[in-house]
Write a structure and sequence with these properties.
The chain is mainly beta and 332 residues long. It has four helices and 20 strands. The strands form three sheets. Strands 3, 4, 5, 6, 7, 8, 9, 10, 11 and 12 form a ten-stranded antiparallel sheet that branches.
């Protein structure tokens, strides 16, 4: 499908529905309507676009939209996505999920939850694992009433990020830590700990087999995104926070990246690092290799080493995503 209606404003949708329909009728959108997958995509996206665009286009933000977004809990759309599984019930067999040898897009309608080994009253959906070529695991854990976590395998480090509800973190010390939405904990390998939930919560977890360095030992970290400083991003417009120290003991980091509508990555990245990404808020377009994917809050992306990658934020509200990145180790 080739579509270029936004030549004058490639990263901001100014057009109303009437303008888009007019351009379609005038054949200036260059869409191949003979391709069945294109027709299916249009059927799926039209309600989404219609609700998002309205009469005035993406770049006009009605006060009601701003008020509604502020009334919802932080990261609410991760567990309640705009294009939810319920929206696709009339399209049996359809999914936006894609798996390629060098990248994957895993969308909410294809999540498969099952009991997590060694956890109590908790369902998990593994979204990225070594079976697909990654050197880490990334999964969502839905903790139910009176739920308890298990421990990762030996020599495996763990990072926990709360996207819904709250959990209590304990490592055997006198003081327990309550982790609300947007809070996180990093656990070095072989550290005893426990996550408890008395109601319900959804947490994102990364696990990675630690690559040790002589005379370097990572430490347990508990924090929240809002307490991390904004970092300089030379040549870029997005806002960046790093949730873990950049020092040698840590062999991966977690980035929080914020984009205003219409902002995009300046660098079209190609590098040796792997990524695991969860879009926490907003929507946009992600380029992976030679493919371009519309993405929304709740979508997960895996990026293998050296896959070309690029992002542009669209819509009426800011985008935020959380990104795993391996660091501080020689790729050999």
């Amino acid at each position: 499908m080739s579509c270029h209606p936004l030549k004058s404003h490639p990263f901001c949708w100014y057009w109303s529905r009437q303008q888009i329909l007019l351009q379609i009728m005038q054949n200036s959108l260059s869409i191949s309507f003979h391709a069945p997958h294109t027709l299916l995509l249009l059927l799926v996206l039209l309600p989404w676009v219609r609700g998002a665009v309205g009469q005035e286009g993406f770049c006009s933000v009605p006060p009601s939209v701003v008020a509604e977004s502020r009334s919802k809990p932080l990261y609410w759309k991760v567990t309640n996505p705009t294009l939810s599984p319920a929206n696709l019930q009339d399209l049996p067999g359809f999914t936006r999920s894609v798996y390629r040898w060098d990248h994957a897009l895993i969308t909410p309608e294809s999540h498969v939850f099952s009991p997590l080994p060694d956890w109590v009253n908790t369902l998990g959906a593994y979204l990225i694992t070594p079976a697909m070529g990654a050197h880490f695991s990334m999964y969502l854990a839905k903790m139910q009433e009176n739920s308890r976590s298990g421990l990762p395998p030996k020599d495996v480090e763990r990072f926990v990020f709360v996207v819904d509800g709250s959990v209590t973190f304990s490592n055997g010390s006198i003081i327990d830590h309550k982790l609300p939405v947007d809070s996180y904990a990093y656990l070095p390998p072989n550290v005893e700990h426990l996550l408890k939930c008395d109601t319900t919560a959804t947490i994102l977890i990364f696990e990675h087999r630690y690559i040790s360095l002589e005379n370097h030992c990572p430490e347990q970290i508990i924090g929240s995104t809002e307490k991390q400083p904004l970092l300089e991003t030379p040549g870029e417009v997005f806002e960046l926070r790093k949730l873990l120290p950049t020092s040698a003991p840590y062999d991966f980091n977690i980035h929080i990246m914020d984009f205003q509508p219409g902002e995009y990555l300046n660098v079209k990245e190609v590098h040796y690092n792997q990524h695991g990404l969860l879009l926490l808020e907003g929507q946009g377009i992600y380029r992976l290799g030679d493919s371009w994917y519309p993405v929304q809050a709740g979508d997960v992306i895996w990026m293998a080493p050296f896959v070309p990658q690029w992002y542009a934020a669209l819509g009426k509200t800011p985008s935020r995503y959380l990104l795993y990145k391996d660091v501080n180790r020689n790729p050999l």
